[in-house]
Amino acid sequence: ALLQQKLGAYIMARNDETPEGTVGKLLINNNLSLSLAESCTGGLIASLLTSQPGASAFLERGAVTYADSAKLDWLQVPLPLLQQHGAVSEQCARAMAIGLRRATGTDLALAVTGIAGPDGGSEEKPVGTVFLALASPEGVHVQGYRFNGDRIRVQRMSAFMGLEWLRRFALRKQE
After folding, report:
1. Could you say which DSSP state residue 93 is in?
2. Strand ranges, E, within the chain
3. What is the pTM of this model?
4. What pLDDT, on the 0 to 100 scale, is given for residue 58?
5. 9 pLDDT band (50/70/90 cuts)?
6. 3, exposed or middle or buried, with CB in 10 Å at 0-12, 13-18, 19+?
7. What backbone torsions phi and psi does residue 78 show, to the nearest 5 degrees?
8. Where does residue 156 rank: exposed (0-12), middle (13-18), buried (19+ CB within 10 A)?
9. 140 with 97: CB under 8 angstroms?
10. Contact between residue 46 and residue 36 where contact means Cβ atoms under 8 Å apart
11. What tens digit of pLDDT does each residue of 114-144 get?
12. Which alpha helices (H) appear in 18-141, and where do they start and end?
């Protein structure tokens, strides 16, 4: 009880709740629709959200846009952007979220791109480099992360950070 009092809004789930269940309830309660563009997470966020009953009330669609061709074709990420900055970049994550929201018309469009490993990293962008972008009527928020661990851990950390972004956005809408 003391921890709940001190941490308050920083707690993702309480008692028997799950982070994905909490996010789903918040999206439903705030009447927010969501679309997802997942690269390095390979659909994990969509899987987590759809494991909860009632996901159809908020999840419009999710796409695994793993290859550059998917980012180009489905999300309309400009080729020069990919050539200049790469698929794992702040610029690409932003373009993914913007393109997805434009295509779907959802309230929220969450995009994730990164290097889960064990290969593919470089000195500039090591394994664990991940960018999240959230497009909403208020604009686009993008942030980069460096997660440690093996492939599964990087994917899970990325997915749960995405859920946390959605949770925080929905909580702000309630205020």
Report:
1. H
2. 34-38, 59-64, 108-114, 129-136, 139-146
3. 0.93
4. 98
5. low
6. exposed
7. -65, 135
8. middle
9. yes
10. yes
11. 999 999 999 999 999 999 999 999 999 999 9
12. 19-29, 44-50, 68-73, 79-85, 90-104
